[in-house]
Amino acid sequence: MKLHLLRYFAVLAEELHFGRAAERLSITQPPLSAALKALEDELGVTLLERNSKHVALTAAGTAYLGEVRLILERVNQAAQTARAVAAGLRGRLDIGFTGSMVVRDMPAIVQDFSREAPGIELQLREMSSSEQTDALMHRQLHAGFVNVATVPAALDSLPLACDSFVCCLPSGHPLADLPEIDLRSLSDETFVMFSREVAPANHDNVVALFSRAGIHPKTRHASRQWLTVVALVAAGMGVALVPASMARAGIAGARLVPLTGEPHPTVGVLAWPRAHRPAALEAFIAVARQRLPPLPGVSARAPEGSRP
Amino acid sequence: MKLHLLRYFAVLAEELHFGRAAERLSITQPPLSAALKALEDELGVTLLERNSKHVALTAAGTAYLGEVRLILERVNQAAQTARAVAAGLRGRLDIGFTGSMVVRDMPAIVQDFSREAPGIELQLREMSSSEQTDALMHRQLHAGFVNVATVPAALDSLPLACDSFVCCLPSGHPLADLPEIDLRSLSDETFVMFSREVAPANHDNVVALFSRAGIHPKTRHASRQWLTVVALVAAGMGVALVPASMARAGIAGARLVPLTGEPHPTVGVLAWPRAHRPAALEAFIAVARQRLPPLPGVSARAPEGSRP
DNA sequence: TAAAAATACTCCATAGGTATTTTAT
DNA sequence: ATAAAATACCTATGGAGTATTTTTA
């Protein structure tokens, strides 16, 4: 089947006159006659009843005309759709995020983007940081809000707003009302922590902080989410080190106290595959970058075209 | 836009390999590369991200693929639809009928046809005989059940089952209980009739019957339907000549009494344009003909290819 | 008889083939 | 080093043009 035959037939069915139809199609009459004959032969159906004085649609021709108009319409529409998606005006983005991101920059970035690019359908999926990096490598995710210190070389990333670790204690704790706490004064406490199997990124972040301070405290494994950690502390299960932004979660019975000395920044980045960047993702990154002016001294990968 | 480009792209998007896709398409690899390039150039959009080791759909390509599959599907479906309509397996027929036909063959024929050709949508429209012949000439109707003695030369027709005129009297009338009535004994009665303007065919039929009997009775004009005529007779407005089949209408207070002498057949034909006969109409005529074996001595036009 | 569709033919644009080169893993 | 896509070039099918014939209202 040739598409131009359908176009010719559609015009012919409107004009019901080979000469005028040929003129509208910018061809001459004989090839138009031949084209219609070819179409009818291919279908095995007479579409136009014609003689030298009259041209009229058959019942089959009328039915076919309806379908043909839909087809021609769709062909144009398909091209426009492709162009719109290529331009980032339409489409869909799959974005991953960890539970703790809901109290950081993520919601604001998502809302900004939804407003600026209403044609893009955002699919948000809560996943752990390691699940996200996996999914990003396998192209099952376009971008992810992750808590990892270093992203794989195949990913680019953008650091999120800085967020320092603070100490989280239950309200009744002797240290809970101090203005700030030295990390070493917590060496006898039991810490609520992440199991390495279930949330390796979060686990590693906190352990790195401990080892930098040179201490090896007692730990109690629990949960895969920062929010759960705070809730467990509030319930008296121990103390913990958590991102300062967890204050926004507002969990009663937990106090957040800054640590003494230099700040202990948490890691948090928006990451995406370096090699797979559709226009919609570019737009998303642009919105994120706009909301996150590059902070000097933050230990995250440079965003654009950098190599490790 | 060329349809084969869409086909090539659809297969290519499935295989994600130019060599295998070309094989499936029964062409060689180079023209397939050229074809995709031509499609991308026309759209102004990259559909496949490719190098010598990997071929992958872009976001725009994924969106376009969805549309392309619908288009290719529809193109095939359109051809099948055209063939089905041409074969009389699908489509629509506009059939006219006069009010009196509901007590004659029409309902049975329509039901037979609906059973035999369930794919054809029957559009039944009650119209006077003259409206129907007009509509048939202007191709606004495919066929019509009409009450006319002679159809125009541009129409073919099939006589319906024979139906004689009988006398219709109110129950209390002196002649109402006779076994049969001589037409001349009614010369002093007032007749319920059709106005010529509103129902010329019915009017002419009855007037012809009168003039054949050589009488010119008093008339009272009313209505455009046989059923109304019977109802008016029952209400004591006069007497009338009506088709015997009106007995089936079962209107209380009206008696139908045969006429003496030779029978006075009513006219009733299924008519259609000689020049415009889609397959669905052929099927309809076939069903009607099957139910109406040609009766000798009936004064209606021969059905097939006859000239007046 | 005149307007319009169908035929007969000619031409060239392009879809598709073969041979080869380039590229990325 | 090798598999696969891109490029170069050639061939031939068929879409479109011109000239003419046929048809029917």
Model description:
The structure is a homodimer of 308-residue chains. With 308 residues, chain A is an alpha/beta fold. In chain A, 39% of the residues lie in helices and 18% in strands. Chain A contains nine helices and twelve strands. Chain A has a five-stranded mixed β-sheet with strand order 4-3-5-12-6, sandwiched between helices. In chain A, strand 8, helix 7 and strand 9 form a beta-alpha-beta unit. Chain A binds a DNA duplex (25 and 25 nucleotides) through helix 3.
Q: Roughly how many Å is the radius of gyration of chain A? A: 32 Å
What proportion strand of chain A? 15-25%
CATH domain topology of the largest domain in chain A:
D-Maltodextrin-Binding Protein, domain 2
The domain count of chain A comes to 3
Spatial order of strands in the largest sheet of chain A? 4-3-5-12-6
For the largest beta-sheet of chain A, the strand count, sense and barrel status come to: 5 strands, mixed
Oligomer: homodimer
Low-confidence stretches of chain A: 296-308
